[in-house]
Design a protein that fits this description.
Elements lengths: L1 H89 L10 H10 L1
């Protein structure tokens, strides 16, 4: 009986040892898979970040070009407005509300 009890104890110990080893192996496999997945995710995130940064740089460059064009057009429009205002102020009939004699004669000649 004592021999049977010893043998059962050894079998129980062996089963426990195998269970511990299987648990450790499962944990190691899980951990290794997790690390691989994390590394893959990190690589995807880094690639997406690089792509977004490149897109942002292109957008910033386009914005700079558009801003320069807008400022140039605004300066040209302001210069044209000043030129027109200067020409209008040089017109002798600029402040008059009625047609002058020359204008009436020109209109009459067209009829």
């Amino acid at each position: 009986m004592a021999l049977l009890a010893r043998r059962a104890g050894r079998i129980g110990l062996a089963v426990a040892a195998v269970a511990v080893l299987m648990t450790a192996a499962a944990w190691w496999l899980h951990s290794a898979g997790y690390q691989r997945g994390y590394a893959a995710h990190r690589a995807e995130t880094a690639a997406a970040t690089r792509a977004l940064n490149a897109r942002l740089e292109r957008s910033e460059a386009a914005l700079r070009v558009a801003t320069q064009a807008y400022r140039r057009e605004r300066r040209e429009a302001e210069a044209a407005e000043r030129r027109l205002a200067d020409e209008a102020s040089e017109d002798p009939d600029a402040g008059r509300r009625a047609l002058g004699a020359d204008s009436v004669r020109r209109i009459g000649s067209v009829r």
